[in-house]
Amino acid sequence: MFRILLIEDDQTLFQEVKERLTQWSYEVYGIGDFSQVLQEYTAIQPDLVLIDIQLPKFDGFHWCRMIRAHSNVPIIFLSSRDHPTDMVMSMQLGADDYVQKPFHFEVLVAKIQAILRRVYNYSSDPAAAFKTWCGAAVDYEKNTVTNETGAVELTRNESLILKQLIEHKNKVVSREELIRSLWEDERFVSDNTLTVNLNRLRKKLEEIGLGQQIETKVGLGYMAVEEDAL
């Protein structure tokens, strides 16, 4: 049974979401002390985190940053704030998705199910969990890319995007293909989410000299280049 940590100070909404998710056989935990979110997260060790932006003491962005410093656990923001800056910020901090309140519960469940499937099942084939690309070791299980220059740690979304591009290296992968393969249903995805994750992936790869190996093909999509294979 998957454990979900719901970091939400609105008790009415918390109880409603908890009750609905429990019906789907998820174990749902809340926060007792909003100044000790990281400590409570560590004690619970959830499989997924749902977090509001506006919280007592520190906002959701702060706690997302703190959790990301210790874990790649999937994180979904739930917020009534609809400014694009909030969505971009959540993606830059490593969140996996952003759901605006009020939301249809079926949409939230679909997002949770899709994320849990891809995070905990996509690397079930050990041989597929490790690849070599442009002289770098890409570990999809540990979400790392390592070469002689150094190593970078990716979020789940970044790792999955890179996996899809490498599997089709030297071929263009359209934005629509990436969205379908990662999020499974385009209706539940913000196109901006893909852009933010791709930009962040490329920026991390630049740290080890591989940023230019992800090319943008204007109007077509993206391509992972491996010159030796050309």
TrEMBL record:
Species in which this protein is naturally found: Paenibacillus physcomitrellae
Residue ranges annotated for the Response regulatory domain, each copy included: 3-116
SUPFAM superfamilies: C-terminal effector domain of the bipartite response regulators (SSF46894), CheY-like (SSF52172)
Domain OmpR/PhoB-type as annotated: residue spans: 128-226
Domain of life per record: Bacteria
Gene3D superfamilies, alphabetized: 3.40.50.2300, 6.10.250.690, Winged helix-like DNA-binding domain superfamily/Winged helix DNA-binding domain
Alphabetical UniProt keywords: Cytoplasm, DNA-binding, Phosphoprotein, Transcription, Transcription regulation, Two-component regulatory system
Localization per Swiss-Prot or TrEMBL: Cytoplasm
Protein name, UniProt field: Sensory transduction protein BceR
Entry-linked PROSITE patterns: OMPR_PHOB, RESPONSE_REGULATORY
Positions of post-translational 4-aspartylphosphate modification: D52
